[in-house]
Automatic annotation (TrEMBL):
It comes from the Eukaryota. Pfam families: Heme_oxygenase. Its EC number is 1.14.14.18. The lineage of its organism: Eukaryota, Metazoa, Chordata, Craniata, Vertebrata. This is heme oxygenase (biliverdin-producing). Residues 1-46 are annotated as: Disordered.
Length: 288
């Protein structure tokens, strides 16, 4: 599933082409990749509507609202999730994060991405691999479920296209996924463990664990401050917001795939009822 990028530190709700020339000039020398600041050094800047973090927060508000208010998400939070559905979610997450993190690694020195590159703290691919080994068995790579749906494949192709041609837009995808993982994802972890009776020790839900981050709120504050020092022109900031909304749409399409899978496996499920339950969040188990 996808968790939703948070819209405030206290909000635990879930939300989960041609490319013109980029206007990006970085400040990566002052902000080394993966550098850790002590929690006491975080400062809260005055909100500025021209800052990228504020533009993303308000520019994705409608998408966030659509995602968190679907019947599907409400059902998920009530624990209405089968093991088979969760396995499908974990597989989708694997392909999405593998693609995104491959492109982040390739472009780690790009001036728009270097300040946001925290592989030790944030990368999810290895954790999802552990989850899949638990959920599908040690030979999970050969399991019939381990293949991307058409919607997941389109999402993956977009991530690779952006990484190849306009890496600055990866900022949007990293923002929408990782900040959600650090907020709403923590609630979803407990829901999944309870609904599927998974071990309290964390097997099957390692995706949600960030052992290298002691304070989720503090790290999110750091991440937002890094967003605001990336030297981007107004056009590129607006395009990053547009790409973040596109990421929400990709997640909704991936979620439709879960619904179609349920219909295929249960002919008693009515398509009209199922599509009223579609949510863009499932790939935040796949959470952002």
């Amino acid at each position: 599933m996808q968790s939703f990028a948070e819209h405030s530190d206290d909000d635990l709700s879930f939300p989960s082409q041609s490319m013109p020339t980029m206007g990006t000039h970085g400040k990566s020398d002052e902000l080394g990749r993966g550098a850790k600041e002590k929690s006491g050094s975080y400062s809260t800047p005055i909100a500025d509507a021209s800052e990228l973090s504020e533009m993303l927060k308000f520019g994705t508000k409608e998408s966030h609202s659509k995602a968190e208010n679907t019947n599907f998400m409400k059902g998920f939070l009530r624990g209405e999730l089968s093991m088979d559905e969760f396995k499908c979610v974990a597989v989708a997450l694997y392909f999405i994060y593998a693609a995104m993190e491959e492109e982040l690694d390739k472009n780690q020195d790009h001036p728009a991405l270097a300040p946001l590159y925290f592989p030790t703290e944030l990368h999810r691919k290895n954790a999802i691999e552990e989850d899949l080994a638990f959920l599908l068995g040690p030979e999970w790579r050969q399991h019939p479920k381990t293949r991307p749906s058409p919607a997941t494949q389109r999402y993956v192709e977009r991530l690779h296209a952006v990484g190849r041609t306009e890496p600055a837009l990866l900022v949007a995808h990293a923002y929408t996924r990782y900040l959600g993982d650090l907020s709403g994802g923590q609630v979803l972890k407990k829901v999944v463990q309870r609904a599927l009776k998974l071990p309290a020790s964390g097997e099957g839900v390692e995706f949600f664990s960030f052992p290298q981050i002691s304070s989720h709120a503090g790290f999110k504050q750091l991440y937002r401050s890094r967003l605001n020092v990336i030297d981007l022109d107004k056009e590129m900031r607006e395009r990053i917001v547009e790409e973040a909304n596109r990421a929400f749409n990709f997640n909704m399409e991936v979620s439709k795939g879960y619904i179609l899978n349920k219909i295929d496996n249960n002919p008693n499920v009515k398509m009209s009822e199922s599509f009223s339950n579609i949510s863009s969040t499932v790939p935040r188990l796949i959470i952002r």
